[in-house]
Amino acid sequence: MRIRNRGEVEKNELNMTSMIDIVFLLLVFFVMTFKIVEMEGDFNVRMPLGESSGVIDETDLPLKLRLRADANGQLASMSLNDIDLGRDFVQLRSNVLSLVGNSAPIEGDEGPEIEIDSDYNLRYENVINAITAVSGYKDGNQVVKLIEKIKFAKARR
User: Fold this and answer.
1) Do the bridges between strand 75-80 and strand 83-86 make them parallel or antiparallel, or are there none, so unpaired?
2) Which of 19, 27, 72, 105 has a C-alpha 20 to 30 A away from that of 56?
């Protein structure tokens, strides 16, 4: 048996208006509640200038951190003021803590400064780990700042 009056086929469409509203509400919620962790990006980086001229004051010399890379770009060794530290970033932090201390800088004093001298092919993650180790650490809920002034020597090839 064949039905001749079939009529028009009804289309079922999904109403997207309410879905779009919900997506925007969620987006606004996450943007408004996003908190940046205090340790992230909490260091001042001073890039090296070109050729410098003038006399360097011996009392104002920064700490020198030397990062050496192997042929694959991995960290081979590091030294802080010519003291070999191997590849241990915890040892680096403890040496910086012993040299700098964890007292706040005096008013008007910019605090200690460190110069990072790394090989050209050293992987970026090792440089970031070194910056993290010398800039400070988190003790419970309190952030202990060590060195905020960080500058880089010219990369060695």
Assistant:
1) antiparallel
2) 105
